[in-house]
Specification:
Layout: H1 2-10, H2 29-37, H3 52-56, E1 60-63, E2 77-80, H4 91-111
Parallel strand pairs: 1-2
Helix pairs in contact: 1-4, 2-4
Length: 115
């Protein structure tokens, strides 16, 4: 959800990769619904595994509570956005999670050069 929203909000000014420690087979239905409600294009959205290569290619790594399962590469900026897992949550809760992630995105974009 965060990667799709960040790519949408950044409007091509940042490159976003998404990865999870235990990715699902597809985007959860409630997550897809709240992203579509926010105007996010899901054409390229699908769960992908977290690899060392993804982290090594990043300038900023955003985690959402993966703890020790997340690879740590020196020299990267790490941000942890502790939000609940939306999997199986009621749609109202998934919307709250989306909005919490959106607030983190607003803060992040304000710190990037050119914003």
């Amino acid at each position: 959800m965060a990667a799709a929203m960040l790519a949408h909000r950044a409007g091509g000014h940042v490159v976003v990769f998404s990865a999870g420690t235990q990715p699902a087979g597809e985007v959860e239905r409630g997550v897809a619904q709240v992203l579509i409600e926010a105007g996010v294009d899901l054409a390229e959205a699908y769960p992908k595994p977290l690899t060392d290569e993804v982290v090594q290619a990043a300038d900023i790594v955003i985690t959402m509570g993966c703890g020790d399962a997340c690879p740590v590469v020196p020299g990267r900026r790490y941000l942890d956005w502790p939000v609940p897992d939306p999997d199986g949550a009621p749609i109202a809760v998934v919307r709250q999670i989306r909005d919490a992630i959106d607030a983190h995105i607003t803060d992040l974009l304000a710190t990037l050069p050119g914003n």
